[in-house]
Design a protein that fits this description.
five-stranded antiparallel sheet; alpha+beta
């Protein structure tokens, strides 16, 4: 499913849940914000922020997408695994976007209970598709095996 379709259906769900959605953000602001923390904003990230500018609170699954200001504040230290953009269960797990092309970002997760970040989705679109179909697959302690790679799963 396209990121626009996946996120569009999630926005509808979040509105029904009463989650406050922040307004969309233009391409220039997204690009400048990501550059401010030493990263690039691929097409999928620009498309995401063109739909919503973040969430003011967690949804019913306890996941929250951050605003650009929160992303800037959280990414003062750079990582080879990308930049932090969201969290689950009040920062028990944090999610990173790692650009792999001009159009696509991988999604990595790191948490308080295991080591280095783990790749959980080969693209932002795949992350949201998994989030819709089976939230636990990306939220509740994804595999922490260093050899785990969803592209080969």
């Amino acid at each position: 499913m396209s990121i626009e379709k996946s996120v569009g259906s999630l926005i509808e769900r979040w509105k029904r849940e009463g989650v406050e959605i922040q307004p969309p953000v233009d391409r220039t602001t997204v690009t400048q914000s990501f550059e401010a923390v030493g990263s690039k904003a691929p097409g999928d990230v620009v498309a995401l922020f063109a739909l919503l500018g973040g969430m003011s609170e967690m949804d019913n699954e306890y996941w929250k997408m951050w605003s650009l200001q929160e992303i800037i504040e959280a990414n003062q230290v750079q990582s080879n695994h990308g930049i932090l953009f969201s969290d689950y269960c009040m920062d028990c797990y944090q999610y990173r976007l790692n650009p792999i092309s001009a159009q696509v970002s991988e999604v990595w997760v790191e948490g308080f209970d295991y080591g280095p970040p783990v790749l959980i989705a080969s693209s932002l679109a795949d992350f949201f598709d998994a989030y819709i179909s089976n939230p636990d697959s990306v939220l509740n302690a994804p595999p922490s095996r260093p050899e785990y790679d969803p592209r080969n799963a």
